[in-house]
Design a protein that fits this description.
Elements lengths: L7 H18 L21 H15 L16 H11 L11 H19 L1
Helix pairs in contact: 1-2, 1-3
Length: 119
């Protein structure tokens, strides 16, 4: 998909670093991040923080998965954020059947369809 490749470990390290940087700038306590940490509820990041995070990560990775691959509204956890960036480097185009992000995307699509049906 992209010329530059980032392995899972490197992607996790870069995403965790970017989240930690935003938390530090906000004066939030430093902590070891876990995949199930919720960006808003657990870590205390606002929608503005998330926008800054996506901008910082776009500079880091040279691409934004939220333009075409993943709706930003489906990303709620650190693990889902990592998953979105891992998809940038997935040449197979196959989703992991245990992918938490894919589940969140499917739920987001179902909500969108229900809203459209109410119309």
């Amino acid at each position: 998909m992209l010329n530059q490749r980032f392995e899972r470990h490197e992607t996790e390290r870069l995403v965790h670093g970017a989240v930690s940087k935003i938390m530090s700038q906000r004066g939030l306590p430093a902590r070891e991040l876990r995949e199930d940490d919720r960006l808003n509820a657990t870590l205390g990041l606002s929608s503005l923080d998330l926008a800054q995070l996506v901008f910082d990560l776009e500079l880091t990775f040279g691409a934004d998965p939220f333009q075409t691959l993943v709706p930003i509204t489906s990303v709620q956890t650190v693990g889902q954020l990592v998953g979105a960036y891992l998809r940038l480097f997935d040449d197979t185009g196959l989703a992991d059947p245990n992918d938490e992000l894919a589940d969140a995307q499917a739920a987001s699509e179902r909500r969108r369809q229900r809203r459209g049906a109410r119309g």
